């Protein structure tokens, strides 16, 4: 076990997507209460519902789909979550290029790790405008006032919100990452025509119409549970900090052995990022050592946790695989990459 300055070290592991295998959509609700079984069974979807889902997925994505002309295997690129959703849409019958050709992107709100969602405004051939949002299911659901039913008709969502919340909770309890897809119509004349004004325009994110909720399986790679066990036996405190909601974070951490039992899943052992960030600096220092899992966290929450642990005399290591982890990575004593272990020295040098 690594020892620095003759004192026992402790680590914070912020576990990246590299700990999981390819993500796949394993549950889906679309057309109101309709649960697709299997999740890519498009035969149950009204054409209007399917068309809007395809439009929202094809246009509101940072991923891409390439279909070789020689009939080779379809290639899907993007983040693990994007790839899972695009793969699901392809199985539903989406023609990526055709769908994208039917509308023009006017404005994009890139996925934001603070707001946990991303959106896009598109103009159709008849000058109709659709605004699509995709993101953390409970957050997107909170902005919806209607949903499309199995007949493709808009219905008030108020009486159905409890059903959708339970569906999200049930999927999260199975360690599924829950994503909601929603849209709304918008008036073209309300959208700024000048580029400089458009850059400052806020994409409307209220009065949305729910299209679908999907549950994405995020399976642990073989060996992760064993690695966590070995770290724990060596005196290394393994913590998981994630943007997933608490239910999903709890289920994944139990699956990977980060949480030992359901009885451990109580505050402050498991905590939401918002709760942690709203504590005073002194309170954060007291709570930090007790935290095993933090859900719905922002990049700044990770940074606050690292800072609190360091102030408590801990030597902190972080794994990270994206720009969202950058603030915390700059603060840590040790950075563990996916394939290379590197020690950050006081002179900002990395020792491999």
Automatic annotation (TrEMBL):
Keywords: Hydrolase, Magnesium, Signal. SUPFAM superfamilies: HAD-like (SSF56784), Metal cation-transporting ATPase, ATP-binding domain N (SSF81660). Gene3D superfamilies: Calcium-transporting ATPase, cytoplasmic domain N, HAD superfamily/HAD-like. Residues 1-22 form the signal peptide. Its EC number is 3.6.3.8. It is an enzyme of class 3 (hydrolase). One of its GO terms (molecular function) is hydrolase activity. This is Putative calcium-transporting ATPase. The lineage of its organism: Eukaryota, Viridiplantae, Streptophyta, Embryophyta, Tracheophyta.
């Amino acid at each position: 076990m690594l020892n620095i300055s003759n004192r026992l070290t402790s680590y914070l592991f912020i576990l990246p997507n590299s700990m999981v295998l390819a993500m796949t959509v394993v549950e889906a609700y679309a057309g109101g209460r309709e649960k697709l079984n299997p999740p890519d069974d498009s035969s149950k979807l009204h054409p209007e519902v399917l068309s809007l889902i395809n439009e929202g997925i094809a246009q509101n994505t940072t991923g891409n789909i390439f279909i070789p002309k020689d009939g080779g295997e379809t290639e899907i690129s993007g983040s693990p979550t994007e790839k899972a959703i695009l793969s699901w849409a392809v199985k539903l019958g989406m023609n990526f290029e055709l769908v994208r050709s039917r509308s023009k992107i006017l404005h994009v709100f890139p996925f934001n790790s603070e707001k946990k969602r991303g959106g896009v405004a598109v103009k159709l051939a008849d000058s109709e405008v659709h605004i699509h949002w995709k993101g953390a299911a409970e957050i997107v659901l909170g902005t919806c006032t209607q949903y499309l039913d199995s007949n493709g008709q808009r219905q008030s969502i108020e009486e159905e919100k409890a059903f959708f919340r339970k569906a999200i909770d049930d999927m999260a309890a199975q360690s599924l990452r829950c994503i909601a897809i929603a849209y709304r119509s918008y008036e073209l004349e309300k959208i700024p025509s000048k580029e400089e004004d458009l850059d400052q325009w806020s994409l409307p994110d209220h009065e949305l119409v729910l299209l679908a909720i999907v549950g994405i399986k995020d399976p642990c790679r073989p060996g992760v549970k064993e690695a966590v066990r070995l770290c724990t036996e060596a005196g290394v405190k393994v913590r998981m900090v994630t943007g997933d909601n608490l239910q999903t974070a709890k289920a994944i951490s139990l699956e990977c052995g980060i949480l030992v039992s359901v009885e451990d899943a109580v505050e402050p052992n498991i905590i939401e990022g918002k709760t942690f960030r709203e504590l005073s600096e002194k309170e954060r220092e007291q709570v930090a050592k007790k935290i095993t899992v933090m859900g719905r966290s922002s990049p700044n929450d990770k940074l606050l946790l690292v800072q609190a642990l360091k102030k408590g005399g801990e030597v902190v290591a972080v794994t990270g695989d994206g720009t969202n982890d950058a603030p915390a990575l700059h603060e840590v004593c040790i950075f563990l990459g996916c394939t290379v272990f590197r020690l950050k020295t006081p002179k900002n040098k990395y020792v491999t």
